[in-house]
Recover the amino acids of this structure.
């Protein structure tokens, strides 16, 4: 894993503030965060109750855009109040332009798997990276949009972690660390639970509303290096 965004050294930095440089003296910068903010972004606190959201990005006509379902899942994660919210995003340095928007929708820490090759969807590489990040932060829940990419990625990620998955959920509810996942079939709403962690769920676009953006909100960004070889060309 590389350092945080804004750090010149290879070591990790405790915090990143949107539009600012490294805020810890350990990275050679000045402390620029207001009193109390450094503690708010303390990355050493427990993460075991957190939620990791796969932030899917589309690149069309040279414009990168976060998929709507990913934003909706971030809103739901904030609503459930299940500890820290982590985001994972894939691609080259251009993804840094999305940090401000990612933080505005409630993400406390974003793990950027920074590899230009991963700007193109590679399900095996994405799944391996999600499993590796989950091993580090130990989230209780992983949420993935039920898009064509998400439908291919989520089962692979769950299998990589040896955990359960419920797909195309119609609702989610969290109590302590336990996630209740609901699906509607033949007019009946059925509740599901996973007996292993992290609990993986996929949700279709439009199930949850869009959250309001919190302008000016900061967060922590880490670069994550993918060292695998899960690159396959689909013909």
């Amino acid at each position: 894993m590389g350092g945080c965004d804004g750090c010149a050294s290879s070591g990790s930095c405790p915090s990143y503030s949107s539009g600012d440089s490294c805020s810890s003296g350990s990275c050679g910068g000045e402390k620029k965060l207001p009193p109390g903010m450094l503690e708010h972004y303390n990355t050493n606190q427990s993460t075991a109750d957190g939620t990791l959201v796969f932030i899917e990005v589309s690149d069309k006509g040279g414009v990168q855009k976060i998929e709507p379902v990913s934003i909706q899942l971030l809103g739901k994660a904030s609503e459930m109040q299940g500890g820290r919210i982590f985001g994972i995003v894939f691609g080259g340095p251009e993804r840094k332009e999305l940090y401000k928007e990612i933080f505005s929708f409630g993400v406390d820490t974003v793990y950027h798997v920074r590899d230009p090759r991963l700007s193109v969807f590679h399900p095996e590489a994405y799944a391996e990276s999600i499993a590796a990040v989950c091993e580090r932060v130990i989230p209780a829940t992983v949420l993935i949009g039920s898009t064509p990419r998400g439908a291919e990625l989520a089962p692979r990620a769950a299998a990589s972690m040896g955990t359960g998955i419920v797909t195309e959920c119609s609702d989610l509810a969290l109590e302590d660390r336990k996630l209740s996942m609901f699906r509607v079939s033949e007019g009946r709403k059925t509740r599901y639970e996973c007996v292993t962690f992290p609990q993986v769920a996929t949700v279709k676009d439009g199930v949850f509303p869009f959250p309001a953006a919190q302008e000016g909100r900061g967060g922590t960004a880490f670069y994550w290096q993918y060292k695998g070889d899960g690159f396959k060309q689909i013909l």
Notes: The chain has two domains: 1-45, 46-208+218-224. Residues 123-137 form the longest helix (15 residues). Residues 46-208+218-224 form a domain with the Rossmann fold fold (CATH 3.40.50.620). The chain has a mean pLDDT of 82.
